[in-house]
Write a structure and sequence with these properties.
single chain; 356 residues; alpha/beta; Rossmann fold; three-stranded mixed sheet; 12 helices; globular; binds nicotinamide-adenine-dinucleotide; binds 2'deoxy-thymidine-5'-diphospho-alpha-D-glucose
């Protein structure tokens, strides 16, 4: 029996990872550790919350004593670490929170695992600390050089407080392998999309705004490029790498699916219009160009050939199918959306966007 802590399991990607592990591995014990910040939402896990192999623990990853005690209590032999502050715009306004959670929180998880595993007779044998990171640590690629992609050996060059904090946490994870021999793995993934994403991120935000015919704030000229992967494909990759990945390795995860923001926004508008029975494209006039994000990275694009060659992973969904499923999910789950966007969050959103 494996006992695995998944941090950040009430968030967007974490909830898909928790769901996959709880359903696929009834013989494992899955402990979801989440502080339930504004981005954590237990409604994301309603369908599995009563499963016998699942436990939720509300805790801050920075709280070393609680995490260490939990490792002892649950005899934890694996950690899949997703908990983080994840939104670039928030990091620009409040970098301290990002340093605290993403850097100190990761260090606290590493140190708790290290100290606990070192008390065991088998020590690190059969143990694994898997850190989920982002392609943003590599900085930005040029628009006019489509042949350039981020590989596992691309130099770290983070630009935003968010990516700087993630880069720092990646370094700590590797340092724990190199210094103490901890069995760590790091993966760096591109932009995810799909159900349960917090609606401050481009795709769910715009789906909801189109539905309510609110302006769509496109940063700059909408020319920035992102590489989009359906979240369930990321969760499948995490499952594969957790079980089959080589210790101390880095794997890049992405679907070779680059889109200019303005083009993906048009696809989203057309899809929402069609599924709502409106004339396709009738909401194009909601597009509103606003002040660019400070330090806005121009282009991200992942080379995931290592993951394919070494472990056989490939995305399972074509983008057209993924975006259709995603838009349909948000339209069918308006109550989930309303529970988030009403009240406090609405005030925050208005203040973020009113001065753009
Ligand atoms: P999210 O913001 O949706 O969820 C983050 C979760 O972490 C929330 O449930 C939140 O409550 C929890 N959390 C935050 N601070 C915490 C703390 N101090 N203690 C315990 N829990 C805390 O994030 P996401 O988009 O699901 O991203 C998950 C991970 O994947 C992050 O590490 C992120 O950097 C990485 N990542 C995200 C993407 C993407 O496109 N969303 C792409 C690549 C990598
Ligand atoms: O690349 C992986 C990263 O992808 C993850 O590490 C981050 O956690 C995740 O938030 C995401 O970062 P981005 O900044 O790329 O995602 P976001 O959805 O915020 O923005 C996507 C693009 O759309 C980006 O170029 C900024 C632009 N944008 C975003 C918002 C919210 C707009 O033009 N308008 C908006 O209102």
């Amino acid at each position: 029996m494996k006992s695995i802590i998944i941090t950040g399991g009430a968030g967007f990607i974490g909830s898909h990872v928790v769901r996959l592990f709880v359903n696929k591995y009834p013989e494992y014990r899955i402990i979801n550790v989440d502080k339930l910040t504004y981005a954590g939402n237990l409604a994301n896990l309603k369908d599995i919350e009563d499963k016998p192999n699942y436990r939720f623990v509300k805790a801050d990853i920075c709280d070393f004593d609680t995490i260490y005690a939990l490792m002892q209590e649950e005899h934890v032999d694996g950690v899949i670490h997703l908990a983080a502050e994840s939104h670039v715009d928030r990091s620009i306004k409040d970098p301290f929170t990002f340093a605290r959670t993403n850097v100190m929180g990761t260090l606290s998880m590493l140190q708790a695992a290290k100290l606990y595993w070192e008390t065991l007779p088998e020590k690190y044998e059969g143990k694994r600390f898997y850190h989920i990171s982002t392609d943003e640590v590599y900085g930005a690629l040029r628009l006019d050089h489509p042949e350039e992609l981020f590989t596992e050996t691309t130099k770290y060059q983070p630009h935003s407080p968010y990516s700087a904090s993630k880069a720092s946490s990646d370094h700590f994870v590797r340092a724990f392998h190199d210094t103490y021999g901890m069995p760590t793995i790091v993966t760096n993934c591109s932009n995810n999309y799909g159900p349960y994403q917090f609606p401050e991120k481009l795709i769910p935000l715009f789906i909801n705004n189109i539905r309510h015919r609110k302006p769509l704030p496109v940063y700059g000229k909408g020319e920035n490029v992102r590489d989009w992967l359906f979240v369930e494909d990321h969760a499948r990759a995490i499952d594969l790498i957790f079980h089959k990945g080589k210790v101390a390795e880095t794997y890049n995860i992405g679907g070779f699916n680059e889109w200019k923001n303005i083009d993906i926004i048009k696809v989203v508008i057309n899809t929402v219009d069609r599924l709502l029975g409106r004339k396709e494209g009738e909401d194009m006039d909601l597009i509103t160009f606003v002040t660019d994000r400070a330090g806005h990275d121009l282009r991200y694009a992942i080379d995931s050939r290592k993951l394919k060659t070494e472990l056989g992973w490939e995305p399972s969904l074509q983008f057209e199918e993924g975006i259709e499923r995603t838009v349909r999910w948000y339209l069918d789950n308006q109550e989930w959306m309303d529970n988030i966007t009403s009240g406090e969050y609405e005030k925050y959103y208005e203040s973020m966007y009113s001065n753009r």
